[in-house]
Design a protein that fits this description.
Elements (H helix, E strand, L loop, with lengths): L8 E2 L3 E5 L5 E4 L8 E4 L5 E2 L24 H9 L1 H4 L2 H10 L4 H11 L20 H6 L10 H4 L3 H18 L4 H10 L1 H6 L8 H17 L53
Antiparallel strand pairs: 1-5, 2-3, 2-4
Helix pairs in contact: 3-7, 4-10, 7-8, 8-10
InterPro entries: Lysozyme-like_dom_sf, Transglyc_AS, Transglycosylase_SLT_dom_1
Family: Belongs to the transglycosylase Slt family.
GO cellular component, one term: membrane
Length: 271
């Protein structure tokens, strides 16, 4: 039976270290003596959202202050040549694929620590830890001279393929970034077999929590708007035009202000 991880508030500690090459290594637990506590996840948030979970009975209309990015991790983003070297390309990729720049940062630092030549035990390669089979699925072709795994060590190629795949997953699970991230880690089939929930895999659950936790620190949620008392608004209607000359829906000769009153052509059914 799959756990209902996606519907529960979640929190996780974040451990890590920065190696001599300036590459970040992150984990939900202390792997060895090199790992130090980056972030203590004693404050929960719902994995379906990016906002912290409200404590029962909270009446803070301004919302709770966001958890700051761990100091060591912020220092990494400020100084690491590994990150700074691909930052312009990362911004370009985020814009091209309509993905939040901060989300790509959070995912990549979790996946590879911004090491373009990182290779996982399962064979995932590069910044976004793309599997060669996934890259081929999204159109990357290698040859005997330069096979797909080698091509994936190129930052531009890796970001292009990885971002295309992530965009596909975000569209596949609309409004559920947690499921898109779970699918990026475990495969979309695993999420679908779990009934569109985060699978009961410890690695995947920790991965989703860590990425969202870092994303939340990089991009705090916008403050909630406070309710205001209704105000009187004076509306002046323009005088009607003397004549409508062949006005048709969606054309430029329609008088201003009439568009909202007419049906959208895409909403009409042809006879």
């Amino acid at each position: 039976m799959f756990a209902l991880a996606a519907s529960l508030p979640a929190h996780a500690d974040l451990w890590g270290y920065i190696d001599d090459r300036g590459v970040a290594h992150l984990a939900p637990e202390k792997i060895d003596a090199r790992y130090q506590l980056f972030f203590r996840g004693d404050r929960s948030f719902d994995t379906r959202e990016l906002t912290p979970a409200e404590p029962a009975g909270s009446d803070d209309e301004d919302g709770a202050a966001p958890d700051p990015l761990p100091r060591r991790l912020q220092a990494f983003f400020d100084t690491s040549p590994a990150y700074l070297g691909v930052r312009p390309l990362l911004r370009e990729t985020a814009q091209q694929h309509r993905i939040d720049y901060e989300l790509l940062k959070a995912l990549i630092v979790t996946e590879s620590g911004f090491d373009p030549r990182a290779i996982s035990p399962k064979g995932a390669v590069g910044l976004m830890q793309v599997m060669p089979a996934t890259a081929e699925r999204w159109g990357l072709k290698g040859d005997a001279r330069r096979p797909v795994p080698e091509l994936l060590t190129e930052a531009r190629t890796n970001l292009r393929i990885g971002a295309r795949y992530l965009r596909h997953l975000i569209d596949l699970f609309p409004g559920r970034l947690d499921l898109a991230l779970a699918a990026y880690n475990a495969g979309e089939g695993a999420v679908q077999r779990a009934g569109n929930r985060i699978p009961d895999y410890r690695e995947t659950q920790a991965y989703v929590r860590n990425v969202l936790q870092i994303y939340h620190g990089l991009k705090p949620p916008a403050p909630r708007m406070q309710a205001r008392a209704p105000q009187r608004v004076r509306v002046e209607m323009p005088a009607p035009p003397p004549m409508l000359r062949g006005g048709a829906i969606g054309r430029g000769n329609m008088p201003a202000g009439l568009h909202a009153a007419l049906p959208n052509p895409s909403d009409t059914t042809p006879d």
